[in-house]
Amino acid sequence: MENQQQRTHASSTLSSVQGVGSTPILEDKPSRLDTFLASARDRASRRLHWLRSPLLLPSFQEEESSPKWGNEVRGSGEPKDFVVVILAQYFGWITTVNGKEINLQLTAVLNDPQVLLRCLGYRHGDTTRRWYFIMDFDVDYEDAEGVVKRLPRAKLPGTEEPILPTSQGIRRILRAAYSGGGSGFVHCGMHGMYSDTGESSITRDANGAIRYMEFPDGSPAKEAFIVGTDGVRLRGLDFMKCLSDGDDKRYNTTLTLMFDMCNAAEFLAGVVKLRYQYRSPNFDGGAAAVAASRSTNQLVVISASQRGQVAGQYRGCGALTYLVARAVTEELYEGQVPTASDIIRSIDEICQTQPNKSFLQTPQMASRYPLTGSFWLIPKRH
């Protein structure tokens, strides 16, 4: 606390906070995914165990080439693909905005694992992929075979202590996952901020609440970042550095990143340059010309929101998480797996039904190379 006690000018204004003051997006007809969730709750009596995060005191560039392909089908003799799921509830977190105390605790993330893992085909004991769950809560999950077990929290090799979604913990697991080779899918459901440049921290109030504070550095510049459960900022550049080491030794892999959080598209703005944009037809932001890349590896980024937008809830889950999972899981397109454009269009149609227009969110998908044909969150092996 010594270095933080010297900081006397904590910011009292946060640009946007995911889930704070927002209302769920307008519902539509029940889907098979809803039926699955309801039956899973009834049969398994799923239990969620909330854990307080421990109080811790505190370039990636493209080169030119010709566009290649979208998602590939890969052989079984190659390195195992990986999935990293990063979720934070921020149990007991509060902050102050314009003199008003605000609850920062997220609830939708508690339901996201059921939706996301069904979409990805997760089964307990699966060894065909490498799975990493970085969460500040435990989940008992019922897989498609009816087996109910607690999801294994990510650990580093040789250790038994679960890794929490702190800024450092996320980076350590991303490096470990990426260094193992193969294609990968990374899902992030946390607080995404767009605030004055500087630092952030947390302290514990006398009543046990965890108070989040920001300390601007006096610059007029702003930055996007993820708030780790240690209160430390995780910036886009540092996030991507963990997913670029050894990239020159990879060939024809696909890395898909999905950010279900506020200010999502801003998180990697200026960090990765993705030439191909798939956006809502209602989005009027335009896309700057971007140089192509010599890399043979596909990179796909799915964002729930634009700068200054919140990321809402839908059916008790993060809206992007639920709607993407539904789009790639259900036969919504005459039995065909949807394309990237299909997915964004279907998500946007639901997002536009949000009755409170101040909570509208504009999802987008961007990629290094064109996404052609059916879209999968992680490549299918043959």
Structure description:
By secondary structure, the chain is α/β, with parallel strands linked by helices. 19% of the residues lie in helices and 24% in strands. It has a seven-stranded mixed β-sheet with strand order 5-2-8-14-16-19-15, sandwiched between helices. It has a four-stranded mixed β-sheet with strand order 4-3-11-10, with no helix packed on it. The chain is globular, with a radius of gyration of 20 Å.
Sum up the structure in keywords:
single chain, 382 residues, alpha/beta, seven-stranded mixed β-sheet, four-stranded mixed β-sheet, 8 helices, 19 strands, 19% helix, globular, disordered N terminus
Task: Give the structure's gist in a few sentences.
Helices cover 19% and strands 24% of the residues.
What's the helix count?
Answer: 8
The secondary structure category is alpha/beta
Please count the beta strands (DSSP E, at least 2 residues each). Answer: 19
Q: What is the average of the pLDDT values? A: 79
Shape: globular
Give the topology string: H per helix, E per strand.
HHEEEEHEEEHEEEEEEHEHEEEEHHE
State the end-to-end distance.
53 Å
Tell me the radius of gyration: 20 Å
Q: Largest sheet, order of strands side by side?
A: 5-2-8-14-16-19-15
Describe the sheet with the most strands: 7 strands, mixed
Q: Which parts are unreliable, with pLDDT below 50 for 5 consecutive residues or more?
A: 1-26, 40-76, 283-290
Beta-strand percent range:
15-25%
What helical percentage do the residues reach? 10-25%
